[in-house]
Design brief:
Residues 412-443 are annotated as: Disordered. This protein is of the alpha+beta class and 461 residues long. The protein has a domain at 2-259. The chain has helices at residues 2-5, 24-28, 34-49, 78-86, 118-121, 140-150, 170-178, 241-259, 272-285, 287-290, 306-309, 314-318, 321-329, 375-379, 421-424, 448-458, and strands at residues 57-58, 102-107, 110-115, 122-125, 128-131, 215-216, 222-223, 303-305, 351-353, 387-389, 399-400, 405-406, 409-410, 427-429. The chain has a three-stranded antiparallel β-sheet with strand order 1-3-2, with no helix packed on it. It has a three-stranded antiparallel β-sheet with strand order 13-10-14, with no helix packed on it. The protein has a two-stranded antiparallel sheet with strand order 4-5. It is globular and about 65 Å long. 49% of the residues are buried.
């Protein structure tokens, strides 16, 4: 059990760019402060070069992963095969030859392979690896099962890590791991039950949205100024309380990096007159919740009640009050940085936070559960596929420039029971728990032409 638990300290999100190592100073300049730029640069270095937790797997895990794929010999282009099977992407920074999200890290008496924030918070769009974009190709369930088996473990995980490829049970990781910690972050056994659920099907928000948000996560439950909330993924069983204290300054730098990020620009042609008409419609119909854009942008930071937004309530209801109380009473919730005497605890909200839409063209699929593959579907509830699959490639050929989002293949029938779990996770079925694509019907009253105009404008954000 101890070795298996050591594989679990990953997915609690590191908070929520198109920033490469060379582009970082440009992103940092958005604040105008030399001190902030320097801190952001330090944060980028810490984020991309530091192993904050021990390794999960041996050095042999990746080279021998193919032995779990049901093939008789190692694929010829093995690096590409690894990326495709697990939904990983090439690192745009020095990373010892490993994909983004994997990292060399220490093991007992050796060196192995671990994970970092980029496993979930770095993806690819237009064929380009992008730090800060949610990884909507990732099959974290298969990754952890396969590599555990290579290292001689059973591969049986204590709960479901992912129900659909490109989504994760991030909330479940937070609940599970915190159950092993006392308020001062010392370890405790047995695990305290905090209401674990693993059917929340969470899509990863883009990091660059943090600069505008006062509260973060899908429900707006956490103060965006909290640094410690970014550190939840460090709850590896070999991470001591003193390690959290030691690394908190580095995460303050990382936070500055995150809030100085800029979204990628839409790389394809835009019909400017059409977009101008869309801007008018957007400001009339969407800005009250999602804000306005440009030099004098606004963002209302609104949480929309469940009965009004109408989207799947599972994520909202899936994090129990018991977890909120435990988090708020712990080291994570007791952060003091000159804002509140009582720290930065979690808060209960009535629904889901309407996010800023900067770089929205790059962040498909949409809704908190990734149930809608295109902006066309966001603005027309009748256009949303009920059951579909996609290639999980991220190049231009996989991108729908008209509907804006991922090209999908609609499926009429449920997946065959003969499919392997790895293949079944490639199918998104909106009839399953946590995966409804209902709600957010605000665009239904627009004409098809008006929706197209709004979509054209959204390409420019």
């Amino acid at each position: 059990m101890t070795r298996l638990f050591a594989t679990l300290a990953l997915l609690v999100t590191c908070g929520p760019t198109f920033a490469t190592e060379k582009e970082l100073p440009v992103a940092g300049k958005s604040s105008g402060s030399t001190e902030q730029i320097s801190q952001a640069e330090k944060g980028y270095k810490a984020l991309t070069q530091t192993a904050f937790i021990p390794a999960f797997w041996t050095q042999n895990a990746i080279p021998n992963a193919w032995k779990q794929w049901g093939v008789t010999e190692k694929p010829a282009n093995y690096t590409a095969a690894v990326l495709e099977r697990y939904g990983l992407h090439t690192a745009p920074y020095p990373n010892d030859g490993l994909p983004m999200g994997l990292r060399k890290a220490s093991r007992v008496l050796s060196t192995g392979v671990g994970i970092d924030c980029m496993l979930c918070h770095a993806g690819s769009i237009d064929g380009k690896s992008t730090v800060g974009l949610g990884n909507t190709s990732l099959d974290v369930q298969t990754l952890f099962e396969d590599l555990a088996k290579v290292d001689g473990l059973s591969g049986n995980l204590p709960f479901t890590f992912s129900n659909v490829r490109g989504t994760s049970e991030a909330g479940g990781f937070g609940v599970y791991l915190l159950g092993f910690r006392n308020p001062d972050l010392t370890m405790r056994t047995p695990r305290k039950e905090l209401g674990l659920r693993d059917d929340l099907c969470e899509d990863v928000p883009a990091w660059w949205l943090m600069k505008k948000k006062k509260t973060i996560y899908h429900t707006g439950a956490t103060d965006s100024r909290s640094v410690r909330t970014l550190m939840q993924f460090m709850m590896h069983p070999l991470t001591m309380p003193k390690d959290f204290e030691k690394h908190e300054p580095a995460f303050r730098d990382i936070q500055q990096y995150l809030i100085n990020l800029e979204p990628p620009k839409y790389p394809y042609p835009v019909d400017e007159p059409k977009a101008a008409k869309g801007k008018v419609l957007f400001n009339q119909n969407c800005a009250a919740c999602h804000g306005t854009y440009g030099e004098k942008w606004t963002y209302p930071n609104k949480v929309i009640p469940l009965d009004e937004i109408g989207t799947d309530p599972t994520r909202h209801k899936g994090i129990d009050v018991a977890y909120g109380k435990e988090y708020s009473a712990s080291w994570f919730g007791k952060e003091k940085n000159g804002w509140f005497v009582g720290g930065l605890p979690l808060r209960a909200t009535a629904g889901y936070q309407a996010p800023p839409l900067d770089g929205i063209w790059a962040t498909a699929p949409y809704f908190h559960n990734g149930s809608v593959p295109t902006l066309d579907g966001v603005l027309s509830s009748k256009a949303r596929p009920k059951r579909y699959t996609r290639s999980f490639k991220t190049d231009e050929a996989a991108y729908d420039k008209v509907k804006v989002g991922w090209k999908v293949t609609e499926l009429r029938d449920p997946p065959s029971e003969k499919l392997s779990p790895h293949e079944a996770r490639k199918i998104y079925d909106t009839s399953k728990p946590g995966r409804s694509s209902a709600g957010h019907i605000y665009g239904d009253d627009l004409t098809a032409e008006q929706r197209a105009q709004v979509i054209e404008y959204l390409k420019t954000l």
